[in-house]
Design a protein that fits this description.
By secondary structure, the protein is an alpha/beta fold. Helix content is 46%, strand content 19%. Helix 3 (77-89) runs parallel beside helix 4 (105-114) and helix 7 (213-226) crosses helix 8. It starts with a helix and ends in a 5-residue tail after the last helix. Bound molecules: alpha-D-fucopyranose.
């Protein structure tokens, strides 16, 4: 007969036995097999096509390797930290993240460490409490400054090709300077325009409050109101959404494709513009790779969790300029289109 004093230890032993039976069932105890592994992929703006494409390629990596991937849209700090706890409770051993706020870096890392999880940042690099990039966390981002300079140079070349009068032309730069990768891009754009010879006093910044098409539209409308005399516009920003918002604002004020040259960074959201039968002011974009940012980060994390292979600390991906005349060929060659 079990006495009361014996019941608790007995239950504890039973519970342990159940847990161990669970362990024993798993193939290859110790060395993990692919199907045992669960990983996460958290993004700050799940509604943005870039992030949906990152998820698509991350999922492809999970399917190719036979592991489970949990995709979570985490749009603010509270959601990110709750999501990490939830993932840990489900047995997830590591995650790739594009954080909604780079200053959350230390909190995200602390949460991951407490839960014994590995962290890999993508697109937006964490900032430490000293305001410097957290370089000890593996990261894949775009080569933001070089890509920005390519955009600035390409805008200038197209402006020259169209023989526009500089005294009637302005540059509208939609900025989001609180995000370092965004600031590096727009600083690079402005630097290249100036280096090519475009007058600095005809370059106008409009700060978007959040990085969305409507916020860029609002920011551009302020620039247009302040610079009502300008007849031709060059537009750049940190991504396609920034440029698209400004193109829409200009259309609202009667500017057409003949008066506007917009060059984005991305290659996802702008495709609808290239597919239109009549060109819009969205002239080109610097194509970046959601395939590399989604597939390769996930694959690196998978190898890290499964085999203990340390991922490269910092990968910076390149961009390729595309427009409506060549985007299909280039995107197919890059594995971004069927
Ligand atoms: C940032 C931007 C995204 C995309 C990505 C590579 O996260 O918000 O639009 O450009 O970098």
């Amino acid at each position: 007969m079990l006495t009361k004093r014996m019941i608790i230890p007995t239950l504890a032993i039973l519970a342990l036995a159940v847990v161990c039976a669970g362990c024993a069932k798993k193939p290859g105890n110790g060395a993990k097999s692919g199907s045992d592994i669960k990983l996460g992929f958290l993004v700050k703006q799940p509604e943005e096509l870039w992030f949906q494409n990152e998820w698509k390629f991350a999922q492809k990596c999970a399917d190719d390797n036979g592991f489970e991937l949990k995709k979570i849209g985490a749009t603010d700090g509270e959601k990110v930290l709750n999501a990490i706890d939830n993932l840990a409770a489900q047995g997830v051993k590591g995650f790739v993240i594009c954080t909604p706020d780079v200053k959350l870096g230390p909190a995200i890392v602390a949460k991951a460490v407490t839960n014994g999880m590995k962290v890999y940042s993508v697109d937006d690099q964490f900032l430490g409490s000293d305001g410097k990039p957290m370089t000890m966390i593996p990261h894949m981002g775009i080569s933001a400054s070089a890509i920005g300079q390519n955009v600035g140079k390409s805008l200038y070349e197209e402006f020259k090709k169209r023989k526009w009068d500089v005294n009637e032309t302005g540059v509208c730069v939609i900025t989001f300077e609180e995000l370092p990768t965004a600031k590096e891009r727009t600083d690079g754009e402005i630097a290249a325009l100036k280096a090519a010879g475009f007058p600095e006093n005809r370059i106008f910044k409009g700060a978007e409050k959040v990085a969305t098409i409507p916020a860029a539209n609002d920011a551009a409308n302020i620039v247009l109101t302040q610079q009502a005399k300008i007849k031709k516009w060059l537009i750049c920003s940190m991504n396609d959404e920034g440029v698209l918002g400004a193109v829409r604002a200009m259309e609202g004020q009667g500017f057409t494709a003949a008066d506007v040259i917009g060059i984005g960074i991305g290659g996802s959201t702008c495709l609808v513009e290239f597919e239109k039968s009549k060109p819009s002011g969205f002239y080109a974009t610097c194509l970046i790779s959601p395939k590399r940012h989604g597939y390769e980060t996930t694959e690196n994390l998978y190898k890290w969790v499964k085999d203990g292979i340390q991922p490269p600390k910092d990968i910076r991906t390149k961009g390729i300029m595309i427009n409506r005349s060549n985007y299909k060929t280039i995107m197919k060659a890059e594995g971004l289109m069927d």
